[in-house]
Amino acid sequence: MEREKSFFEFMPVSFFGAVMGLTALCFVWRLVDKIWRVGSLAGEVIGFLAIAVFILLVFAYGVKWVRYPALVAREFGNSVSIGFFSTVSISILLMPGILVPYSVVLADVIWLIGVVITLVSAWYVMRKWTTGRQSWENAVPAWVLPVTGTLNVPIAGNALGFPGSREICVMFFGIGIIFIVVMMTLIFARLIFETPLSEGLRPSLMILVAPFALAFNGYVGLIGGYDLAGSCFFYFTLFLLLLFGSKVVMLPRCCPFQVSWWSVSFPLGSVSIACLRYSLSRPDVVHRMLAVGMTLVTTAVILYLVIQTGYYILTRKYLR
């Protein structure tokens, strides 16, 4: 009789994408409250839910690491799945943004830990890719995650005020903005000239929307205002959303629910934050309606993903 797999044996590291999505949604609703005074409860509840999910996932993946080290080694050794390990460091980088209103010291410590892990992770992954020949088929959207991680450093870092935090943010922003152009070029070349992505991977194309949304949010935070460069980042983000936004609609139709669907949540949240922040400098009807629309879509999609994930785990569909 075939042994039934446990949840720990199944759990992929990409599950940490749920933490990223929930954290982004927390920031979205905090901005909504700042602009329209709708109340802070929604944002704070979502934020602490994100922290709780992170703690549970760290425990679950730790159990997997102890009980099934070969499976973890296989994930880490794969040129595609290794990129998803960056979801852990990105989650650590983002959580200080949730905690800073409650404890600046705790937020500072966690952020610095995230910065170190992100630097080591980006260095290791880029070194691995550049010291061995890679197949074009491996150049999937998840490849941008290690580099995107560096662009997350200023997201929470801009809210921290300890000496040197701004220089750290500038350094990582510079690394990220240059490398993301390189990585996007490689991935677009693969999409244009090679075999199309499989149906299960197509929703992950939404990952490509996140980098320039992060570039906009980080840049505006660093300069403390809005200028032509910031506007270019913002409108290019909207163009990428038009290009890949249909992947969100494809979710229920492309294949049965998969954990990889969470890959659309953080890009949507990042674009929503960008739209809300840009509407502060352009408070006209068009930009305000865009901000409202993105907030509602992002909230609805993440709520759908939460329900589907809960059903997926409770009914043990990961066994099928």
End-to-end Cα distance? 16 Å
At the fourth level of CATH, the homologous superfamily is: Voltage-dependent anion channel
What is the number of independent domains? 1
Q: Enter the CATH topology name.
A: Glycosyltransferase
Radius of gyration: 19 Å
> SSE order, as H and E?
HHHHHHHHHHHHHH
Instruction: Write down the oligomeric state.
Output: single chain
Relative strand content: under 5%
The helix tally amounts to 14
**What general form does the structure show?**
globular
Q: If classified by CATH, what would the architecture be?
A: Alpha/alpha barrel
Helix proportion range: over 70%
CATH level-1 class: Mainly Alpha
The computed structural class is: mainly alpha
Written description of the protein model:
By secondary structure, the protein is an all-alpha fold. It has a single domain, classed as Voltage-dependent anion channel (Glycosyltransferase, Alpha/alpha barrel), CATH 1.50.10.150. The protein is 72% helix and 0% strand. It has 14 helices and no strands. Helix 2 runs parallel beside helix 13 and helix 5 runs antiparallel to helix 6. The two termini are 16 Å apart. The model has no long low-confidence stretch (mean pLDDT 88).
